[in-house]
Amino acid sequence: MKRFIYSIVPLLVLLITSCYRETEPFLNGPGFDGTGYRPLYATATELTHVQTAPARALKNPGKIYVLGNYLFVNEMGTGIHILDNTDPSTPVNLSFVAIPGNYDLAVKGTWLYADNGPDLLVFNVANPRQVQLSKRIKDAIPANNYPPHQDVYFECADPKQGIVVGWEKVTMATRPSCFR
Amino acid sequence: MKKYTTFLSFLSLVALSLLLWQCNMGSADSVSPNQNGTGGSMARFAITGNTLYIVTRQSLDVYDITQPDAPTRQAKAELGLGIETIFPYRQNLFVGANDGMYIFNNQQPQAPTLLSKYTHVMSCDPVVVQNQYAYVTLRGGVGCRQWVNNSSLDVVDVSDPANPKLINSQPMQSPYGLGVDGDKLFVCEGISGLKVFDISDPTQPRLHHNYPEVASYDVIPRQNLLIVTGQNGLYQYRYGDNIAENSMELLSKIPVE
User: Fold this and answer.
1) Within chain A, how many helices (H) and strands (E) appear?
2) Could you tell me which Pfam families the record lists for this protein (chain A) (predicted)?
3) Which of A177, B35, B62, B256 is the most core-located residue (most Cβ within 10 A)?
4) Helix, strand, coil percentages for chain B (3-state, nearest 5)
5) Mutate to test the interface with B, among A23, A111, A121 (most CBs of B within 10 A)
6) Nearest-by-CA chain B residue for A115
7) A 48-87 near B (Cβ less than 8 A)
8) B56 with A90: Cβ contact below 8 A
9) If you average pLDDT over each of A37-41, B4-8, B45-49, which comes out highest?
10) What pLDDT, on a 0 to 100 scale, did the predictor assign at position B81?
11) How many CB atoms lie within 10 A of CB A147?
């Protein structure tokens, strides 16, 4: 009986821990195709470089938010495009709010709420071409130290190197140790 | 009688100018106050009334935004790991997580209470709701199932939000965001395109049309206008009220650079 317990316990431990090991797949996990995501870091100062810029082209559009005739489009990890969508057949790109580490947004009235890495920002968008930062709530949102994709390998984020503000897909010679 | 018609025409003139004034307000380069917007199903941020909800990777945070530029946190509900999305619908909040869906009662917006957690299989995530049915996409390749590539579209009966019931499930490729409007359900399939399902029978989504060229990530269907983002750009379509009409007209595309 004792022998049975000795043999079953390690097996159970292995089973349980393997389930929660989000970062390290089993040997028979999905194949590594030579690409993975690498974290892009910013210093605490770089993180606060938030500004309204002229309209720019979409590169890596993410989440969207509609308010009246306006359309807000997240540019993954870098900010928010504001478009006048009064005529959806000819949307007009008005401006870009540059926000390092931005993926999420919500709008009410003239107020835009957005994440800036771990910080929560409030902007006044009464004039979409001149968006004003009104409030910063520091460390409101615990960091997601993984890329906004699934079934991917990525370099584990290292907090010593700074705050993760984005992820880039790169070719990698060896399989990185993090996976989700 | 003459007096009466004069009064009527005066009234209609006032109404017309009011209407015009409103139109002007909308189209000008300014945003009107106190208007609530709409997000997609991938959202981590949501606003209802004077409350801003944020789902972080492990909690639901509730902010009072009565004073819009000074959000104050009212509550924080710790949840399991892997929280991804939030979708407010009527009196409930639907929170999509890697391992299921949490349903909160939202009658007191600043103090949501957890009603149930719907767990199907280890998977994820976004959820949209129409009437008594929630549509959830589960993307394979997460946690314990990471090498089992079983993605699916589930229909969950949430008429009793404390006791959600799975009523239909069908395989998908790599679903991301989704949106529902009337008899149509739009499902983003990442690089595999955009799918339109016929939900004339809301319990049995039937594939109606596939747009393989429209790489899609997030989607908002609203007032016959469909807005889609994906790695090739932003697409907008006009769709008809009735899916049988088969009308989906591409209005514009903003390509990525």
Assistant:
1) 2, 13
2) LVIVD (PF08309)
3) B62
4) 10, 50, 40
5) A111
6) B45
7) 57-73, 84-86
8) no
9) B45-49
10) 80
11) 24
| B90, B69 contact by CB (below 8 A) | no
Residues on chain B touching A148 (C-beta within 8 angstroms): none
| Full DSSP string of A38-90 | EEEEE-HHHHT--EEEE----SSEEEEEEETTEEEEEETTTEEEEEE-SSTTS
Question: Which residues of chain A have a CB within 8 Å of the CB of B27?
Answer: 69, 84, 86
Of A103, A108, A144, the CB nearest to B57: A144
In this structure, what DSSP letter does residue A98 have?
Answer: E
CA of A97 vs chain B CAs: smallest distance (Å): 16
Q: Is the CB of residue A141 less than 8 Å away from at least one CB of chain B? A: yes
Does B69 sit within 8 Å of A122, measured CB to CB? yes
Is there a contact between A143 and A163 (Cβ–Cβ < 8 Å)?
Answer: yes
Residue B230 contacts A, CB cutoff 8 Å: yes
One-letter amino acid for residue A124 of the chain: N
Cα distance between residue B179 and residue B127, in whole Å:
9
Are the CB atoms for B235 and B214 separated by under 8 Å? yes
The pLDDT of residue B6 is: 58
Q: Please tell me whether residue B63 adopts helix, strand or coil conformation.
A: strand
The answer to whether B147 and A26 have CB atoms below 8 angstroms apart is: yes
The radius of gyration of chain B from alpha carbons, rounded to an integer in Å, stands at 21
Q: Which residue has the tokens 């103090």?
A: B111
B234 interface with A at CB cutoff 8 Å:
yes
Residues paired with B208 in a beta bridge: none
Q: Is the ipTM of this complex over 0.90?
A: no
* Separation in Å, CA of B14 to nearest CA in chain A: 24
Q: Is A7 within the bounds of a domain?
A: no
Q: What would the pLDDT profile of A5-30 be if each residue is shown by its tens digit?
A: 565 555 444 444 443 444 444 444 56
Domain residue limits at A57: 28-180
CA distance B240 to B145: 39
Three-class SS state of A158: coil
A104 interfacial to chain B (CB closer than 8 Å): yes
Q: How many domains does chain A have?
A: 1
